[in-house]
Amino acid sequence: MNTILVTGGAGFIGANFVYYMLENHPDTRVICVDCLTYAGNMSTLAKAMADPRFTFYKQDIRDRAGINAIFDREKPDAVVNFAAESHVDRSIEEPELFVQTNVLGAQVMMDACLAHGNIRFHQVSTDEVYGDLPLDRPDLLFTEDTPLHASSPYSASKASADLLTMAYYRTYGLAATISRCSNNYGPYQFPEKLIPLMIANALADKPLPVYGQGLNVRDWLYVEDHCKAIDLVLQKGQIGRVYNIGGHNEMRNIDIVKLICAQLGKPESLITYVTDRKGHDLRYAIDPARIHAELGWLPETAFADGIRKTVQWYLDNRPWWEQIVSGEYRNYYERMYANR
Length: 340
Ligand code: NAD
Ligand code: TYD
Description:
- By secondary structure, the chain is of the alpha/beta class.
- The chain has a domain of about 240 residues: 3-Layer(aba) Sandwich (Rossmann fold), CATH 3.40.50.720.
- The longest helix has 21 residues.
- The termini are far apart.
């Protein structure tokens, strides 16, 4: 049986990937390594915990000895590194943590792969490593050859990990690939991020805090399409290669927030324009031509369907996010949004 080790599997995309792999690869064991930061949630993995093909380790990826012990014991055939600090606003508050987890943690994972016989390593990265594109040049898209030009401590830490991954491939021959995906949305996304935050606030009739004028553009992809793309890169991707993942679905923030209001039957008067994010990237847009041409990947979920499913998921799973927004998250929210 094939064994795949997934880091960050108690977070949003990692958990969706765990379920994707368990469902689509009946001969695969999934080992999850996650230290359960504020963003990690065992209730997300409750169903997986009941599956004999799934094993969970509460483990920090920065801890070499702990990681090596798991490799010795589980002997993974492949590693997919999702574990990261993932929120731009938090990176502006606490950049050092982002360097530690996103760069040094990734290095520990790569070293463990090399030390255990050059295990196949996939680094989950982001389109944010390319910086941003102008709003008035819709013809420009990020390709894999676009120079790295990160704007936030978050994106700089992800870009650093990408550079290290490519250096490990070139120097040590690490069997590595990288994928750079656009903004994801779907079930189990932590409510600090745009879409779940707006859904949770709207349902509570709270203000919907739109940064600046809400004109920034993101290229949204349904999380399951991302999982499928990573699986393909893992199976068929060329070693040493970067693959962009995105769905040609550019939307302005304000239009997303209005759509959520409409779906929930809430008034747009809840929308409140607040002080802009520092260094706020204007526009992200991915050119996914390579992954389409080489691996045959195309997104399958249209945004209209994906956002409807996502809103419905948050309606159907209130305990999951209500537990989060009623806890420590309240302090974060107060810190980030009061007097903004
Ligand atoms: P998330 O914040 O929801 O989850 C991150 C997970 O990593 C959590 O379970 C957390 O407990 C775990 N983690 C954090 N630090 C750790 C450490 N030191 N050791 C072990 N586990 C640790 O993040 P997400 O949105 O699911 O993103 C997952 C990955 O995908 C990240 O690498 C992110 O950069 C990348 N990505 C995210 C998006 C997006 O739209 N969310 C888009 C492109 C790429
Ligand atoms: P976010 O979900 O944090 O993802 P990223 O910054 O990685 O793209 O934010 C998406 C967009 O929504 C971004 O342009 C910032 C904006 N935004 C708001 O306007 N208000 C909010 O409360 C949040 C969290 C984000």
